[in-house]
Amino acid sequence: MLIILAFFAIYVIWGSTYLLNKIAVTELPPFMLSGIRFVTAGLLLFGLAKLMGLSLSFTAKELKNSIIAGFLFLTFGNGVMVWALQFVDSGFAALEISAQPLVVLLLMRMLQGKKIQAMSLVGVGLGILGMYLLVGQKDIMAQEGAPFAVGLIFACMVSWSYGSLFVGTAKLPAHYMVNTGCQMITGGGSLLAISWLLGEPWSPPTAWSPPAFWSMLLLVVFGSVVAFTAFNFLLRTVSPEKVATSTYVNPIIAMVLGWYFLQENITLQSCLAAVVLLTGVYFINTKKKMPLFSRFISRRRSKKQA
């Protein structure tokens, strides 16, 4: 039952955060919204860690790396994406971000020299085609601010992808709750600082409309605390490949919820782009081999070396 509930969290709750952010950002300033969300969630995680008897101490190096990770993941990777949601639909943003495994793969090739396997090469090709189909929709791109927002979302995806590689080698607080709480508080604090520097109008929760208030509450409690805890629980309980299936489900959940609650338009080309993109993600994540394609690539490499 716990495993089923955890999968529900990373499938549905994470998929619904695009809708919740879209609802909240129509009323609340984007950087204030994200800053309050992550600082509050970070404090809640620290409180839970304290109740569990975990040590909240960390070294100066661990704090520095947490600040860097918090910036890559939350300040830029999430905060700027929320800002961009003012100009594009939530389902569109989720579908664009579904190409993140492609970006991670390319960054690993460029920064770490890791070879791209045959199946992953197919995934790269499909991912590029899917992105072209997604952003090549003239009606969507003709909307005010949409091209710039699409570019920013892609930059957020690169930031999040680089952050994934960074935390793989960086020295961070040992326990995931303390580590994440530190990232959320520092990343959220940076977002609040940016909000203040930009002169965003701040308002107390008592002044928010019910949709904005409940969206924020759900983002803090479920989108940040519950879903992340479920994610780490699954990593310790089932195989990583099964956990990675959230990559395929989140965009679909986001598109359906955006269509149902916000009447966002789902075009035929967006559906086609979704199929192509998610198929590409499958090829990137799968460990199966393509013997004929692998031999073809090996022969080409042998000829180049000769």
Structure, described:
- This protein has 306 residues and is mostly helical.
- The chain has one domain (2-305).
- It is 79% helix and 0% strand.
- It contains 15 helices and no strands.
- Helix 2 packs antiparallel against helix 10 (176-198) and helix 5 packs antiparallel against helix 13.
- The longest helix has 28 residues, at 210-237.
- It is globular, with a radius of gyration of 20 Å.
- The N and C termini lie far apart (57 Å).
Beta-strand residue fraction: under 5%
CA-to-CA gap between the ends?
Answer: 57 Å
Number of strands: 0
Tally of helical runs:
15
Secondary-structure-derived class:
mainly alpha
**The biggest beta sheet, please?**
none
Question: What coarse outline follows from CA principal-axis ratios?
Answer: globular
The value of Rg in angstroms is 20 Å
Assembly status: single chain
Average pLDDT reading:
88
Number of domains: 1
The topology string of helices and strands comes to: HHHHHHHHHHHHHHH
Uncertain regions spanning at least 5 consecutive residues: none
Share of residues in helices: over 70%
